[in-house]
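Help! Submission page says 'invalid entity' but I think these are all valid:
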Amino acid sequence: MLVGELGEEALLDRLRRLFSSTAAAISVGIGDDAAVTGPAAGMQVWTTDLLLEGVHFRKDWQAPEQLGHKCLAVNLSDMAAMGAVPRYALLTIACAGDTPVDLITGICEGIASLAAKTGTAVVGGDTTGSPGPLALSVSLAGELEAGEAPVLRSGAHPGDRILVTGRLGGAAGGLRLSQQGSGAGFPQLLTALNTPVARLAEGHAARLAGAAAMTDISDGLATDLRHICAASGTGARIRADAIPVSESLPEAAERHGWELQELVIYGGEDYELLIAAPPDKAGRIAGAIEAAGTLVTDIGQMTAAATGIVMLDPRGAEQPLAQRGFDHFRR
Amino acid sequence: MLVGELGEEALLDRLRRLFSSTAAAISVGIGDDAAVTGPAAGMQVWTTDLLLEGVHFRKDWQAPEQLGHKCLAVNLSDMAAMGAVPRYALLTIACAGDTPVDLITGICEGIASLAAKTGTAVVGGDTTGSPGPLALSVSLAGELEAGEAPVLRSGAHPGDRILVTGRLGGAAGGLRLSQQGSGAGFPQLLTALNTPVARLAEGHAARLAGAAAMTDISDGLATDLRHICAASGTGARIRADAIPVSESLPEAAERHGWELQELVIYGGEDYELLIAAPPDKAGRIAGAIEAAGTLVTDIGQMTAAATGIVMLDPRGAEQPLAQRGFDHFRR
């Protein structure tokens, strides 16, 4: 059987089982935004993400510094989703010998700039020549305060409010513009795609204020909400008209004939946080996120698993959220 | 300027400078076998290595389990070279959708098996589809006991004895056999190439016994000795006839017309340890390595920098060791 026939989720299940014996003493292993190790006296949080030319980016879609920013930011976002503080990063670069030095140093300048802003030390890495596409991989270790536990995907309960930071769909809009080669006029969407903001302060504040479950929206709202529901054994009901839409996205969607809801619900790479908040703590969590200067919106609530994952349209009709999302191996 | 024109060493120098500000508080940053962070109460050691199809391996040269073994082993070897104990690993796999599932699970079985043997927990990772070659990247974090310091490349002094574990040239011989498609008859050389042993117990014992400087021989004896000399500000004088040669290598070299010394001095990937041992501790260090069941050989001594890096041939003639070694970006 080929990887593309098995699919990404099933492959991950196999690898999870394979490595479970090596990680028997690990607090949180493969399957959350990040892994968690160590005793209560200062747990460590671990994540890694690879950006590959032709899959995750194209060289001519952004400045090298933006690409560097993004390859660290996507890892920082995993850290944010655990409510952890980033500390140490390792960087791997694979590129062809005919790659301009300025491209590589530009990428590294983008990484170094964001690293400095977030208190992340780039402590080492690996470089190698490659006959294939440019590959940028960051591994990141972070910390939790002594005695503190990370916020997992599995902690949600029916009745929890569902909060989301920022606005959605912007990165998906930016991706379509880039693919069409028509970015002019909507710089905000390109910014959303190329220089996503990891919600570190917001994730940390949400954890301290009592968030029950949390993930970052990297695969799209529908898919990432499904991740929380699957891990928590719940359903969810969200209101379509409550979902905060990226500001210039409606205008861009109208001009280009895109279906707006498709981008907002199924578009990935916004790197906002999706939070399940116990009803008695939802106000405090929202307040803590707003105090960090970031919009936060209540878009619905967690339900019993039997409800499934559904969206209420503006007329009050329920529609199930489709199980879609990007599979890296099926093309 | 292109990366291939600048060269790997010069590129690394630029990246080191770029990231130095982010890692100002780091004990050991980019440029040793691994990075070191944290207070004396239990330092952490960090390393990452990428294996790329067509650059570091070919799929038909070894079993999937061997490939998995190797991609963890090369990282464990960096840990060994610091005298540290491996703890947590992150694994990144990039492959095409038409990759057989058995290849990926076989690789992961090889990783899991070696991880279990070495007390390493594979806590997470990333998988992605790729239009390019199969890429396997491991990031590894290890630990030092509270109050203990790692063994760096920079600690050698003139007069230190130069010790090497195991035997050299086997992996380079195995590589030539694989390239020629003529592996039969010399299984030991293929084993040296495909399932290298990270000298974890030996590195740990050497550190406790007082090793002054240490590195693993991944780039070849000449290049890795040069790394220690450059970091320590010394020269070195080694004896050609003292260097332990991989057991079946002379026979293979004779049969295939290879220059034996070329493989032993400049061949890479043996993953043995190269140690600078203060004269009064050399015996104790050698004894500790032998107690781990591993051959250890005194091949010469560190000298003043003015001597350069030289080898005495069996007739007592001195020849400088050429500055060679693999540059990943120049082809």
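Support: the input was valid. A stray whitespace character was the problem, and the output above is from the cleaned input. The domain at 31-143 of chain A is CATH 3.30.1330.10 (60s Ribosomal Protein L30; Chain: A;).
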